[in-house]
Amino acid sequence: MSRSIFISLALLAWHAAAQTSSLCDPRHNASCPNDPALGSGIYNETFTSTTTELNPNFWNVTSGNAETVQFGENGAELVIAKSGDSVTAQSTFYIMYGVVEVIMQAAAGQGIISTFDLISDDLDEIDLEIMGGNTSFVESNWYGWGNTSQYNAQYHPCNGPQQGMHNYTIVWSQDQLQWIIDGSVARTLPYAKAGRYPQTPSIMKFGIWAGGDSTEPEGTVVWAGGKTDWTKGPFTMTIQSIKITDASTNTSSYTYGDNTGDYQSIKAVAGESAAYKLLNKKSAIESATAQWNGLSDGAKIGIGCGVGGAFAVLIIVYTAVCIVQRKRGKAEKAIADEQWNEHTSELMEYRTQMAKGHFAVSHMGHGEKF
Ligand SMILES: *[C@@H]1O[C@H](CO)[C@@H](O)[C@H](O)[C@H]1NC(C)=O
Ligand SMILES: *[C@@H]1O[C@H](CO)[C@@H](O)[C@H](O)[C@H]1NC(C)=O
Ligand SMILES: *[C@@H]1O[C@H](CO)[C@@H](O)[C@H](O)[C@H]1NC(C)=O
Ligand SMILES: *[C@@H]1O[C@H](CO)[C@@H](O)[C@H](O)[C@H]1NC(C)=O
Ligand SMILES: *[C@@H]1O[C@H](CO)[C@@H](O)[C@H](O)[C@H]1NC(C)=O
Ligand SMILES: *[C@@H]1O[C@H](CO)[C@@H](O)[C@H](O)[C@H]1NC(C)=O
Ligand SMILES: *[C@@H]1O[C@H](CO)[C@@H](O)[C@H](O)[C@H]1NC(C)=O
């Protein structure tokens, strides 16, 4: 292939993979809303056949629907079956440096792309892309400011990404960015100035799409490894677990101090993030449930009497927190509303249980959804 053809194919592929617009780009708009942070929380979820949904507190499914995200014994299954199908979910929270670990099995099938990435409001982007027809290599890539004239893709050996679970970990700091595959560092990108190194708060996105679909440009089809044969579908990407850690602690949100896109302009607003509060509450309830299950019936009745009073106080405290929360940014508000509804329903549940002569812990059994 001549160099010029190669470059034009590469550029087409670029357009297919890079995100080229943002709801509000802080390099071009001084009044973008704050980015809700993950902050001190660790989002850590293993998907199983008992998982019922991608928790909407943490994930926004922007392409696809409940039928295209299923849960099986190996994890969350993202399924595409016909031309035009794709499934994408994105986190409701941002991280500013940190670690993203995904244990997954890519979809098999020519032209099918299984992917996850980190993307910021000014379009810094960190990618991992796996072609369904290439059983021995996976691709890493990155972009600065959505600049589609850069070409940074590299390929790394990986033994059968479609044949079993592999651990893809991105470790992102101020100094360097690393892609680690099954425990081996595949690529290290050293820090460079803004626009040449991702350095702004980012959401995590994952999904499956067909770069080999007949509706895609020729360059994209070539990059994806050839035309997709839909009669061989459906094509399924399986995610066993996702773990996301934000390098910033005690941070409720991030803001851009100016339009430089430089990490030094990013400000962390101190406080507990909405995501952290939800995660913290979830783990507190999980350990309380485990403890509760270990107790004798006599102890349960004794504690139940005490819990009644303590629980009523908690409801008042949470209600106050929720009222404050409701005044904050839009995405935070969505999460706060969820909390509000949940605590209201907890209160109702508590009353019902008390009326029946039970004590107030049965809501803990709902463990899955917060
Ligand atoms: C800047 O962002 C704000 C908030 O999203 C929006 O209301 C406003 O229209 C944007 N301004 C421009 C010039 O795009
Ligand atoms: C993450 O979750 C897994 C399974 O749920 C658990 O075994 C592990 O200890 C968790 N790790 C952290 C750091 O929370
Ligand atoms: C897999 O990717 C590598 C690296 O780009 C490439 O050399 C190889 O030809 C690809 N194999 C297939 C079957 O597409
Ligand atoms: C985009 O990246 C290319 C290649 O690195 C560079 O030459 C060009 O100046 C960049 N464009 C902008 C607008 O930053
Ligand atoms: C995945 O790889 C990362 C980086 O090597 C490692 O820290 C982590 O423990 C691995 N996760 C699992 C579940 O093995
Ligand atoms: C977190 O930030 C809040 C708000 O500034 C502050 O009051 C609190 O002391 C901080 N907590 C920690 C552990 O740093
Ligand atoms: C979810 O995504 C849709 C479509 O992009 C968007 O309109 C909505 O605001 C998002 N919700 C949250 C909570 O981010």
Low-pLDDT runs of 5+ residues are 1-7, 319-330, 346-370
Instruction: Indicate how many domains the architecture comprises.
Output: 2
Largest sheet: 8 strands, antiparallel
Give the DSSP E fraction (strand runs of 2 or more residues): 25-35%
Say which molecules are bound, naming each kind only once: 2-acetamido-2-deoxy-beta-D-glucopyranose
Helical content band: 25-40%
Count of discrete alpha- or pi-helical segments spanning 4 or more residues: 5
CATH architecture annotation name of the largest domain: Sandwich
Mean of pLDDT: 83
Question: How is this structure best described in words?
Answer:
By secondary structure, the chain is of the alpha+beta class. It has 2 domains: 3-281, Jelly Rolls (Sandwich), CATH 2.60.120; 283-370. Helices cover 26% and strands 31% of the residues. It has 5 helices and 18 strands. The chain has helices at 3-17, 218-224, 274-294, 297-325, 330-355, and strands spanning 35-36, 42-46, 59-63, 69-72, 75-80, 86-91, 98-105, 112-120, 125-131, 137-143, 154-157, 166-172, 176-181, 184-190, 202-210, 235-246, 251-256, 266-270. The strands form 3 sheets. Strands 2, 4, 5, 7, 12, 13, 14 and 16 form an 8-stranded antiparallel beta sheet that branches. A 7-stranded antiparallel beta sheet has the order 3-6-15-8-9-10-11, with no helix packed on it. It has a 3-stranded antiparallel beta sheet with strand order 1-17-18. The longest helix is centred in the last third of the chain and has 29 residues, at 297-325. It is globular, with a radius of gyration of 23 Å. The termini are far apart. Mean pLDDT is 83; it is low at 1-7, 319-330 and 346-370. The structure holds 2-acetamido-2-deoxy-beta-D-glucopyranose (7 copies). One 2-acetamido-2-deoxy-beta-D-glucopyranose binds at residues 250, 270-271. InterPro entries: Beta-glucanase-like, ConA-like_dom_sf, Glycosyl_Hydrlase_16. Residues 1-18 form the signal peptide. Residues 45-239 form the GH16 domain. Belongs to the glycosyl hydrolase 16 family. CRH1 subfamily. It catalyses: Random endo-hydrolysis of N-acetyl-beta-D-glucosaminide (1->4)-beta-linkages in chitin and chitodextrins.
